[in-house]
Design a protein that fits this description.
9-stranded antiparallel β-sheet, 7 helices, 804 residues, 12-stranded antiparallel β-sheet, 42% strand
Length: 804
């Protein structure tokens, strides 16, 4: 593999607001004139530079063992680049006669005499559509596609590559007829956008293709391969296809899947210039900052050594003493309520990892309690020129942000205090974050009066989510002269299963005094311990707890009351030093203890509040956040010393005193979460995102239905020690064996292939302001061989249009 500079350039994809144009049926219309550029040097054309990626064989270049797997060809004949329309079966047609005349010409020109490659020149503005693509025919006859979109400047381009082609292909694979395709294209009539939301959908598909393009797959490709060979190879890469399919699935989920994604006809800045009033524009472009916690588990494949060196890992949020606000774990949500809604969701979360390696030859284990700080971030530094790809996102009508995660490459020390360097390159993923609280600012265009702050009520001001991701960890060297980092070979491959909980930052004046009373608490975590001096300690122990906190005067008293029921309990799943596995054990109640809770105090000794909290004392104190009303808290814990490490996620919500209202119409929830499975021979981590849970009334109680699907990875603990590729399990439906709701306490039991699965946990408070008595239920996943944590997130049925 050729070395790469560990840095990305900032790529911002955006679209101008244009008037939609009607499109004739396939084959209809004479189509635009191709390659007929205007000869007027003063012409005002719309341009889009094209970057073409492919193998040496596709470009008909010579190659050797040192040739890069993927090359950019600046010398491709410009006549090989065109715009076509695809039918539902990907049959090509000319775009309609209403599409502007255009030409494919050399990019070099006035102001850019040395610019390489080609560009498309359009005589007039055009409306991007989901079935309009850029088509490139390579010198060897291969053809690849990319969505056609507008580019913002001459410095940006539409890239045509294997990733962009796969995004287009996977969309059309899910379209079975022309009628289905028309549901994603402009409508006829006065409002061409109408319920098809075609502008938002075409925008989203272009983002999906951009994200898929930067997936690191060049290690799989040989320069001698043709396009069909490469595409066949990539279709088998489940890490890539899972995330493309997640994103494409949101486009086709229903006719109008995007909240406020239908263009409002009233947004016309020419006829109504008052819309450009600064106060209105500020209100229509709010920016929210969230405090963040992240917790995860995963596996590391050791490429430098054989499979017996593969490792188990855990990770959690990190905040060192004295860190300034730039290092706070946080996420930024920029919203744009203009002609239609779109968003940016930008995480910036410092974290640390701990690892454990089983030595399968002699049943002992070694730990690395804390690797140097890593960062799960859209920025590599405060220098905006070293940012990564930042694509936009949309809020679904179910209440989810489809957040593309093109995470920055991060360089760290290889080991604490070491001189060797690692480069963490997180492959792009689509991570769905659920926005629990529905309250939004006033988006009426004509109101100029002062807008009071949003009243969020009792509902958690949280974004919740879980996901599966993949990263390559490279050996890295630094050039002493230029200070640039250069990649070497891949040292490790990381597959991680994570949970995230982001809480809206509070006003600066918030006080921890509002955190008082009784809270229902879930804690889920893992401990790794190889202290051989204590034979009772276990190398791996996964723990799930339900407990009660009583908070008063910054003191947290925790317990597991035995009455009136045994609801509050602890479960442990463990493997001992002799590799013997112990099934999940339910412990008796009686847990007791106390910890202190404080607003975060920065290194300068001043209180940096905004709802950032610490739990406990010392260097391993938990870091977390609170909501403004003090009713909802979240933390990640860590305890790292010598030969041990433990990390966990804590979720605490004010105990409910009201019941969840059910009826004969089911409440439908989407699950996000993961579980850890263990038996005598292996460990398995599984993500259950997109599984479905329905609750409905059943006499005096309730009944539930579970539609379960998963993505899982296994670590074989026999002599081989190998890690599996991700395994996708399709949806299977189960009816509940029992279902119980008592105030905020929820317990549902299913029979899964002869094994009991219990989902037990707590419903977060809701004040019913939106007509719902529950939106978020935090549940432990309890089986004999598996423990986990899932978020059950209610389908919110948000409006696809601006209602005002």
């Amino acid at each position: 593999m050729s070395s790469k500079t560990v840095r990305y350039a900032l790529l911002l994809s955006s679209f101008l607001t244009l008037n939609a144009c009607g499109i004739a049926g396939p084959g209809g219309g004479g189509g635009p004139t191709f390659n007929k550029p205007s000869t007027d040097p003063a012409r005002d054309v719309v341009t889009a530079a094209i970057t073409v990626e492919g193998t040496a064989r596709m470009h008909q270049r010579g190659f050797s063992s040192n040739t890069a797997p993927i090359l950019v060809d600046d010398n491709i004949p410009c006549g090989n680049i065109s715009v076509v329309r695809l039918d539902f079966d990907m049959t090509e047609f000319n775009v309609s006669s209403s599409f502007p005349d255009y030409a494919s010409v050399k990019r070099a020109g006035f102001g850019k005499p040395d610019a390489p490659g080609c560009k498309l020149e359009f005589e007039t503005n055009f409306e991007p559509q989901i079935d309009h693509v850029v088509r490139v025919e390579y010198q060897n006859g291969d053809i690849l596609y990319a969505p056609l979109r507008r580019v913002e400047s001459e410095d940006q381009s539409i890239t045509v590559s294997f990733g962009t082609h796969l995004a287009v292909e996977r969309f059309f694979d899910k379209i079975n007829s022309r009628d289905e395709l028309n549901k994603h294209r402009p409508c006829s009539g006065v409002n061409p956008d109408c319920e098809t939301q075609h502008r938002a959908k075409s925008r989203l598909l272009s983002f999906i293709s951009d994200t898929a393009r930067i997936y690191e797959y060049d290690d799989l490709i040989q320069p001698a391969q043709e396009a069909d060979e490469v595409l066949a190879l990539l279709r088998g890469e489940s890490d890539l296809m899972i995330h493309i399919d997640t994103a494409v699935g949101e486009i086709i989920r229903e006719d109008s899947p995007i909240a406020k994604g239908t263009v409002r006809e009233s947004y016309d800045t020419v006829l109504d210039p008052d819309i450009l009033n600064g106060d209105i524009q500020n209100r229509l472009r709010p920016s929210l900052i969230f405090n963040s916690v992240i917790f995860g588990m995963g596996f590391i494949e050791d490429i430098d050594n054989d499979s017996r060196y593969n490792k188990l890992l855990t990770l959690s949020t990190n905040l060192e003493s004295g860190d300034d606000s730039q290092a706070f774990p946080q996420l930024i949500n920029n919203s744009f309520y203009l002609d239609y809604r779109y968003d940016e969701v930008l995480p910036n979360i410092p974290m640390r990892m701990s690892t454990l390696r089983f030595k399968t030859t002699n049943v002992t284990a070694t730990t690395e309690p804390s690797r140097p700080e890593n960062r799960y971030s859209f920025l590599t530094s405060s220098d905006q020129n070293e940012s990564t790809l930042v694509n936009g996102t949309h809020l679904s009508t179910q209440g989810f942000f489809l957040n593309d995660r093109a995470i920055a490459q991060i360089v760290t020390e290889r080991n604490t205090g070491g001189s060797l360097l690692y480069g963490y390159d997180y492959n792009p993923v689509y991570y769905k974050l659920y926005r629990v609280n529905e309250q939004e600012p006033n988006t009426i265009l004509t109101e100029l009066d002062f807008e009071p702050p949003v009243d969020y009520g009792d509902s958690p001001t949280w974004l919740t989510g879980a996901g599966y991701g993949f990263a390559s960890i490279y050996d890295v060297t630094q050039d002493s002269a230029t200070q640039e980092f250069e990649r070497g070979d891949i040292a490790e491959k990381l597959r991680y299963f994570s949970w995230e909980l982001h809480g809206l930052r509070t006003p600066e004046t918030v006080s921890e005094d509002v955190i008082t009373g009784d809270y229902d608490v879930i804690e889920f975590g893992i401990a790794m311990d190889t202290n051989t001096l204590d034979t009772a300690r276990k190398p791996v122990q996964v723990t799930a707890q339900l407990k009660e906190w009583s908070l008063s005067g910054r003191s947290v008293s925790e317990s597991q009351p035995n009455s009136p029921s045994d609801f509050y309990r602890t479960w442990e799943l463990a493997r001992d030093k002799d590799m013997v596995f112990s099934a999940a054990q339910q412990q008796t109640g009686g847990l007791s203890g106390s910890r202190s809770l404080d607003l975060y105090e920065g290194g300068s000794g001043t209180l940096d509040t905004f709802g950032l909290l610490t739990l406990g004392t010392g260097s391993d104190r938990a870091i977390g956040h609170m909501t403004e009303n003090g009713q909802h808290l979240a933390f990640t814990t860590r305890d790292t010393s010598n030969n041990s490490a433990s990390r966990s996620l804590i979720i605490a919500t004010k105990a409910r005193n009201d019941d969840i209202t059910l009826s004969s119409t089911p409440l439908d929830f989407t699950l996000s979460g993961n579980y850890f499975y263990m038996d005598a021979d292996k460990h398995r981590l599984a993500n259950v995102n997109e599984s479905r849970l329905s609750l409905e009334e059943d006499g005096s109680g309730c009944r539930a239905t579970l539609g379960l699907q998963s993505v899982s990875v296994e670590h074989d603990l026999s002599s081989s020690g190998t890690l599996s590729m991700p395994v996708i399990s399709s949806t299977t439906n189960y009816n509940s064996a029992s279902c119980s709701l008592d105030k905020g306490q929820v317990e549902i039991v299913f029979n899964i292939g002869g094994d009991a699965l219990t989902l037990r946990g707590f419903a977060a408070r809701e004040d019913g302001a939106t007509g719902k008595t529950v939106k978020l239920i935090n549940l432990l996943w309890l089986q004999d061989n598996a423990l986990g944590l899932v978020f059950a997130q209610l389908d919110q049925d948000l409006s696809p249009t601006f209602d005002n």
